[in-house]
From TrEMBL:
GO molecular function annotation: calcium ion binding
Domain Cadherin: start-end pairs: 36-129, 130-242, 245-346, 347-456, 457-578, 580-684, 685-793, 795-906, 907-1037, 1038-1147
Organism: Geodia barretti (Barrett's horny sponge)
Location, primary (coarse class): membrane
Entry GO CC: plasma membrane
Descriptive protein name: Protocadherin Fat 4
InterPro entries noted in UniProt: Cadherin-like_dom (IPR002126), Cadherin-like_sf (IPR015919), Cadherin_CS (IPR020894)
Taxonomic lineage of the native organism: Eukaryota, Metazoa, Porifera, Demospongiae, Heteroscleromorpha
Compartments reported by the entry: Membrane
Record keyword Calcium present: yes
Keywords, in A-Z order: Calcium, Membrane, Repeat, Transmembrane, Transmembrane helix
One Gene Ontology term from the biological process aspect of the record: homophilic cell adhesion via plasma membrane adhesion molecules
Keyword Calcium: yes
């Protein structure tokens, strides 16, 4: 550096420098700018001697494209020429600063100049069609030069300015081999915007669709291509041509051919399309007899030909006409032939009659059956016959002219009971061969004759009828069978005889049912022993003879008989009865046993021979007794104790030996009165008493009550009390009345412990029985000294005070008391009693009785206090002489006055609510927050509660939820969506202050807030609102999954594509999508759950065709509510060899792992939908080499918008434009295949079909 005075600033040779540079041209092969190339040099001089100058770019180099490598030289160089792009930036203005390098640095001087850099345009951009595919249409036979109607205009752009659209040329290339070639049929205008015909195209002879490639080339040879598809629209230029039917145009029809019969179906072909190919038919000739279906071409006979006499010939002209009016015609010849067409016809198809089973031979069927059939043919003779041989011997058919009658063939062959109906067929014939015989059905019913008697089901009926059967009861029923029917079958019953006759009115028979019915109540008059019966001819068996008669006419009636044997059964229905009564009473003294108490007796009146057995019913009272089962003697087997039980009741049973229905039992009661004996001495409650008594007790004081009892009765139980020993001057018995069970020992004088400290008194207790019994009680009485005087309150006792809470160390009251005793009995102490925690808030001076507040009182904790205070003599502390201290107590009541010193708080956290995402705006989400608020202040001073959202900004609402200031009610104020926000959490503050600002309300919520409920009282709580998902989203198809292709060589169950539809619902049931194809017999199947579309047919010969089907995606398994989406699945059919083979520098396994990435990468590179159909080990077919280090990916490409199969050459061209030799993307067009080295080639089999 140069030191010295710096008087001059550097000066540039020019205030402005200009330079031109060319943009980087990726398409050019000529020499271009290089990195570090000097594009300009600036120089400056300094009048100061020996000053060095530093050059720096100080402006205009925001993209850092330029630099001065050596600041001591003014050379400006280009850092990266590839970043120079005319289409992005056309010029740069750099500010160059020159600074002299003097010392000190503060003396340095600078100057600036400008370098203007102009970027020259290069032809580095391709002309680009605006679309990859164009479509158009033109009528066939249109005049030469007719413009094609384009769906979208043809448009080409070129970003270069000097080499733009004015330098491009358009041309048509051929694709495929339609005839005539597209480049002969169409031409592009010079500007490429219109397409016209060069020939008149016949759609029926030439192609209906032309597909060709349009090419645009600029002056440098840069080009782009686009596909054009021209549909040739049909015009009505072809008449329908009638086709000859299989049997030709000559038809033979019989005269009796049925009306509406189809004679022939006429078809026609029209090579036009659509409505132009729709054919309609008309018929000329044969009016009234024949017609043709307008749409179907079916020729039918519409009228009867019976009136015509063959031979007759009809010439019918069939005309086929299309909707455009073009037509053709052919003649149809119909010849009418003869037929014998009438057959006999019965007047009725069904005949019926009857004949009696006992009818004589030849009896006519009733009513007389006359069969009649008619025949419309002239001079026809009708005869009748029975074809069935099964009735040939039973019925005769007699032909009479044109009719026939039927008779029976013999009476011996009919038996209605074996068969009551005969059905057979009768035929009518005219004897002409070729005509059908008519038939009629004849049914003959066989009527009944009374040829069977009623038959009883049994020759004899037996029945046992027990005693007790009620009048009107059916004891048995007789039954008959009669093979006849109707009145011949109906039967009436009657009693023919009864044995013995005395029972004639005991039973009768129901004439209709045959039931044997008791006419009287069956008691022991009929069933018992003769001793109890009143009948003269008493018997236990009755025999009835019953007659059954059918109800045929009187002269034809038939009868039959049966016997009913009835056994009358006696029952043991009477129980033995005790005599003379069922109640007995006995007396016996207590303490005796082994003696008879008494005897009981029972008899059975209707069965004097019956044996009776006696029993004692077991029970508590029956234990001391037993009874002789045969004689009824009751004996005492254990001594009785009257004091335990003086009255006993014993239950007896007398049981006979009957068997039907079993033994009967009679009952009796025995009452035993137990007589008293003097067997108990008086019993004292206590035998000894030890009693301590204070001295000075009053005269006549009851010292103790002596209680005794004697369970004996009367004199044996009457007791009395007396002093057996003791000082009768000091004590006496109070003298209870005679017979009383207690007496009292009382003082006669005041007792002095210092004179006699212990007294012993003996009390004698005696009863009045003989011999007399006694008991004694000994009492020991001990006197104790007493503190005779209690303290007496003189001030402050029993007071009530009101004190405000939160006041400390204040005097409440000064208590005072006196005691007239001397010594320790006179000295007093004060203290609390009761152990209440209330005393912790107060302090009482033990010696002087002053009461103070010990700590702040809290109304919310304890609103009032009750203090029990005791004053006592010093005996409470010393108690060394056995004298009980005397005390006095008082109650001090303290009322705490409340002040508003507490905030409201929540006793619950959090508050949770669950609502569906379709919850109605304005509806209440929750209204129970107020229920969890508490305030420890009293109701009298408590103010209302107010509720706020805990927020520094908005205390009324949080998101879609708002809270009512006064009630805490949370409502929904705007729509919610589960898929956007499934949960909301906010905080609510409660206060007893209204209209608080956000700054006053806001409390930063703690994470552990809800964990402190129960241990802390917080005026903030958390609110959690959880939204439940509702099925409100419909599935949305991924459009790329709706475009696919399939090779015509594909086998069954080949995967074509996988349908993808997204449902934004969260719930798995709602968001799971199912798929269906809506089509009749489609060649594809779709997996309902995965959406995988597979082939269900073969596609041989269908290359170039397109299948389109409606596919449906639905959610919620189709249950309500369910949302569906429909879309069109487009599948192009192509030849397998039309696919592209891309060679990747990866093994097959590695390529398989990144199949999806490869598809995405190639798709991003080309702009097409890419489907990789197969990945295999690389096969170099030209060198016959298999390379396992590489993989062949076989794929095809579909256009994003049209779904058309993109020509392989076009896909390869795009890939090659975007990749360098190593397969890496060029810098100006980064792609997704930077880690995939690809080389795209065509399959060898198809390579000859493309220019590549």
């Amino acid at each position: 550096m140069i030191e010295g005075a710096n008087e001059h600033a550097p000066e540039f040779a020019s205030d402005r420098y200009d330079v031109d540079i060319s943009e980087y041209n990726i398409l050019a092969s000529a020499q271009q700018h290089t990195a570090g190339e000097i594009i300009a040099t600036v120089t400056a001089t300094d009048a100061d001697a020996n000053d060095e100058i530093e050059y720096i770019i100080t402006g205009g180099n925001e993209d850092n494209l330029f630099e001065i490598p050596n600041p001591l030289f003014g050379n400006i160089v280009l850092k990266d020429p590839t970043l120079i792009d005319f289409e992005t930036t056309t010029s740069y203005a750099l500010i160059i600063t020159a600074t002299d390098l003097v010392i000190p640095e503060s003396d340095r001087r600078t100057t600036t100049t400008y370098l203007y850099i102009s970027v020259l345009d290069e032809n580095d951009n391709l002309p680009v069609f605006s679309n990859d595919m164009y479509t158009g249409r033109v009528d066939e036979e249109a005049p030469i030069g007719t413009s094609i109607i384009l769906t979208i205009p043809i448009s080409v752009t070129d970003a270069d300015s000097l080499y733009g659209m004015e330098t491009v040329e358009f041309e048509i290339n051929t694709v495929g081999s339609p005839l005539p070639s597209p480049f002969l049929a169409f031409t592009l205008s010079e500007d490429g915007t219109s397409l016209t015909t060069t020939i008149a195209i016949d759609r029926e002879e030439d192609e209906g669709v032309f597909t060709f490639q349009m090419r645009v080339v600029d002056a440098a040879g840069n080009e782009d291509t686009a596909m054009m598809t021209v549909d040739i629209l049909d015009i009505n230029d072809n008449a329908p041509m009638i086709q000859e039917p299989q049997g030709g145009f000559l038809i033979m029809v019989a005269e009796n051919n049925p009306v509406n019969s189809v004679l022939v179906t006429i078809t026609a072909e029209d090579t036009d399309l659509g409505v132009n190919a729709e054919v309609f038919f008309t018929l000329q000739g044969g009016a009234g007899y024949f017609d043709i279906g307008h749409d179907t071409g079916v020729v039918t006979q519409i009228g009867s030909l019976q009136a015509l006499e063959p031979p007759v010939t009809f010439t019918l002209t069939v005309i086929a006409r299309d909707s455009g009016g073009l037509s053709s015609s052919r003649d149809l010849i119909v010849n009418l032939t003869y037929s014998n067409d009438h057959a006999p016809v019965f007047e009725s198809s069904v005949y019926s009659g009857s004949v009696a089973e006992c009818a004589e031979d030849g009896t006519p069927i009733s009513p007389v059956l006359t069969l009649r059939a008619t025949d419309d043919d002239t001079d026809s003779v009708v005869s009748y016959y029975i074809e069935s041989s099964s009735v040939g011997d039973l019925f005769q058919l007699e032909n009479i002219g044109q009719t026939a009658t039927i008779r029976s063939a013999g009476s011996s062959v009919f038996d209605r009971e074996s068969r009551d109906t005969y059905t057979f067929t009768v035929y009518a014939t005219d004897g002409i061969i070729g005509t059908d015989d008519d038939s009629a059905t004849v049914t003959i019913f066989i009527s009944d004759c009374n040829d069977h008697s009623p038959i009883f089901t049994q020759d004899m009926y037996e029945v046992d009828v027990p005693e007790g059967t009620a009048s009107g009861a059916t004891v048995i029923q007789v039954h008959t069978n009669d093979a006849d029917i109707g009145e011949n079958e109906e039967v009436r019953f009657n009693v023919e005889s009864v044995s013995p006759s005395s029972f004639s009115n005991v039973f009768h028979v129901d004439p209709l049912t045959g039931g044997i019915v008791a006419s009287v109540n069956i008691d022991n008059t009929y069933t018992g022993s003769s001793a109890c019966s009143t009948l003269d001819d008493h018997s236990n068996n009755v025999t009835l003879t019953i007659k059954a008669t059918d109800q045929a006419t009187m002269q034809d009636q038939l009868s039959n008989y049966t016997t009913v044997f009835i056994r009358l059964l006696d029952r043991n229905s009477e129980a033995p009865s005790f005599v003379p009564s069922s109640f007995y009473s006995f007396e016996i003294s207590e303490n005796v046993d082994g003696v008879d108490l008494g005897t009981v007796e029972a008899v059975d009146e209707c069965d004097m021979d019956s044996d009776v057995t006696f029993f004692l019913v077991s029970g508590q009272d029956s234990a001391p007794f037993e009874i002789d089962q045969d004689t009824g003697v009751i004996r005492v087997i254990a001594g009785l104790d009257r004091e335990v039980n003086d009255f006993l009741v014993v239950q007896l049973q007398a049981v006979d030996d009957g068997t039907d229905p079993g033994p009967q039992t009679g009952h009796a009661s025995v009452t035993i009165n137990v007589l008293d004996e003097n067997d108990n001495a008086p019993k004292l409650v206590r035998d000894t008493y030890d009693i301590s008594l204070p001295e000075n007790i009053p005269v006549s004081t009851t010292l103790i009550s002596i209680v005794a009892s004697d369970p004996d009765l009367d004199e044996n139980g009457t007791i009395s009390f007396s002093m057996q020993s003791g000082d009768s001057d000091l004590f006496m018995l109070e003298g209870s009345p005679a017979g009383s069970d207690s007496d009292h020992l009382v003082t006669k004088v005041s007792l002095d412990r210092e004179r006699v400290s212990v007294h012993i008194v003996t009390i004698l207790v005696s009863d009045a029985g003989s011999p007399q019994k006694n008991s004694t009680a000994v009492m020991t009485l001990t006197l104790t000294d007493v503190n005779d005087n209690v303290p007496v309150w003189t001030a402050g006792q029993g007071s009530e005070f009101e004190i405000f809470e939160n006041v400390t160390n204040s005097l409440v009251v000064d208590l005072d008391a006196t005691d007239r005793d001397d010594g320790l009995n006179q000295e007093l102490v004060y203290f609390f009693v009761g152990g209440s925690q209330d005393y912790e808030s107060f302090h009482i001076d033990r010696n002087d009785g002053t009461l103070h507040i010990a700590r702040d009182l809290d109304y919310e904790t304890t609103p009032e206090y009750t203090l029990n205070i005791v004053v006592s003599d010093r005996r409470a502390e010393t108690d060394d002489d056995g004298v009980t201290p005397l005390t006095n107590s008082t109650t001090i009541h303290i009322i705490v006055t409340d002040v508003n010193d507490n905030e409201p708080y929540f006793n619950r956290c959090p508050h949770g609510y669950e609502i569906p995402e379709t919850f109605r705006v304005g509806a209440v989400v929750g209204n129970n927050i107020k229920d969890s608020v508490e305030d420890d202040d009293s109701l009298a001073i408590r103010t209302p509660f107010y509720y706020y959202i805990d927020s520094p900004e908005n205390v009324e609402c949080f998101g879609p939820f708002c809270i009512d200031l006064y009630t805490g009610e949370i409502t929904l104020e705007s729509n919610i969506d589960f898929e956007t926000t499934p949960t909301y959490t906010f905080y609510v503050v409660v206060s007893d202050m209204p209209n608080l600002s956000p700054e006053e309300v806001y409390i930063p919520p703690r994470i552990d807030l809800c964990d402190k409920v129960g241990t802390e009282k917080n005026n903030i709580t958390r609110v959690d609102v959880v939204l439940t998902d509702v099925n409100d989203q419909e599935p949305v198809f991924d459009p790329n999954s709706l475009l696919a292709a399939v090779a015509e060589e594909a086998e069954f169950d080949t995967t074509v594509t996988v349908l993808k539809a997204i449902d934004k619902d969260e719930n798995d049931t709602f968001s799971t999508v199912y798929y269906e194809i809506i089509a009749v017999d489609p060649p594809y199947l779709v997996n309902r759950e995965t959406g995988e579309v597979t082939t269900a047919d073969t596609f041989t010969g269908r290359s170039g065709e397109t299948d389109k089907f409606t596919v449906v995606a639905y959610d919620n398994r189709g249950n309500e509510p369910s949302f569906t989406s429909t879309a069109i699945l487009t599948v192009r059919v192509f030849k397998e060899c039309e696919q592209i083979v891309a060679v990747a520098d990866q093994t097959r396994e590695e390529a398989e792992k990144c199949r999806t990435q490869l598809e995405t990468g190639i798709s991003n590179q080309t702009g097409y939908i890419i489907y990789i159909t197969k990945i295999r080990v690389h096969q170099d077919e030209e060198q016959n080499i298999v390379d396992t280090t590489k993989a062949d990916m076989i794929f095809y490409a579909l256009h994003l918008t049209t779904g058309d199969l993109v020509p392989p050459t076009e896909v390869i061209a795009i890939i090659e434009r975007g990749l360098d030799f190593a397969g890496r993307p060029h810098k100006e067009s980064p792609g997704q295949l930077s880690d995939q080295h690809l080389q795209a080639i065509l399959w060898r089999e198809c390579r000859g079909q493309y220019n590549h």
